[in-house]
Specification:
This protein is globular. It has a four-stranded parallel β-sheet with strand order 2-1-3-4, sandwiched between helices. It is built from eight helices and four strands; from the N terminus they run H-E-H-E-H-H-E-H-E-H-H-H. It starts with 6 loop residues before the first helix and ends in an 8-residue tail after the last helix. Helix 2 (30-46) links the parallel strand 1 and strand 2 (53-59). 44% of the residues lie in helices and 10% in strands. It has 213 residues and is of the alpha/beta class.
Length: 213
Amino acid sequence: MPGYVPDYVTAGQSDDVFRVLHVCTGNVCRSPMAERLMRHGLARRLGDGAAGILVESAGTWGHEGAPMEAHAAAVLTEFGADPCRFTGRELLDDHVIGADLVLTATRDHRAQVISMGHAAGLRTFTLKEFTRLVRAIDQATLPDGGVTERARALVRAAAALRGWLLAPSAEADEVHDPYGAPVSYFRSIGEEIHTALDPVVTALTGIPAPATV
């Protein structure tokens, strides 16, 4: 049909919704934890306004239709996040095209996303890389308008800083795979992800995390 544009092409460009895509390998451990921890952090800060940021995940070798790993679900519950109704997905072009921000577990995942094309380079970061860049951004320079406008400005600012603020080491930008490990290791990875996400969610929303009672 002439002039037809698939829904996934415009989804990530909607003025009303900012889309975040978390990527790991199997989409049953790291990226599901990142997805649900981010959703939890957004809900704590924004309440119903969290609907303005859509958070999803997928895997470069995703276990399509698989449930989240039980240890990952247990860790999410410990953080107060909701692990329910999760289904693994394999990373597709549609997911990258629709995303305003792609956050990967490792540099290899980042490279794989960028290699898919779709001008993904300026909006794809490892999670820890994005955290490092966000910490260096003066949040007073971000717009005070809606959350989507602020989020898009944050991604542009982070991309502009990337060549100037390098990782202290290659390992600094990696979140290692806990697949097959005991729950104690899942907890340490969950804590890494949570620690990396907290300043990101604060910067996206302009609202610090509420104090824990």
